[in-house]
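Discrete fold record:
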Amino acid sequence: MSSVELDLRRLEPGEAPRPTQLEPVRAADAVVVRGPVPALSAVLATLLKAGRTAEVPVAWEPGADKSSVALGRALGIGTGGPRDLTLVRDDHGGVLLHHGRIEAAGGGRRSLSRRVGLQAHHDDIRVADGEVTRIDVRPDWTAVDTIGVTVMTLPLRPTRHTSGRALQVASDPARVLRDGVPYPRPVNRWTWYADDRVRWRLQP
């Protein structure tokens, strides 16, 4: 068996692995990845493109950052046996494991002062229609094929929470973050969905 070990612990916040670092993953029979959430997301996205998520077990040694610790706890890293888990993906080839966000293009430290016009549906529920501050998306690891969506219309105002399988957004130019990594360009359309046809295998 060809096992690949990737040490990606030196990734900076908001940084994804380089394609050259991920090349060995495509032909691997098993993968061990060390590092933050974007490292694991990138490995799974590589396996997804190769059509191999269900057959290649992935072991993860989380980083010490807050997001990695939280996801490691949610996935039960270090406990139990191998298991097949939901794969939350988007229509731009990415994978979401912990936290996605859609906000006004420009983002940055002043992101709460910016708003973006959009319409969003979570399954058959229209969760936004107009200007919002941001939309947050999180895979629900306590359920099957489920994502939780939170819509913030204005800072310090009540937010709207929904649960379902797919979020579809049409918007003015918006910034998207996948597990803390910004998508390289503004988008006008975006979909996140828990794919009930695909699983990935966690080796805890």
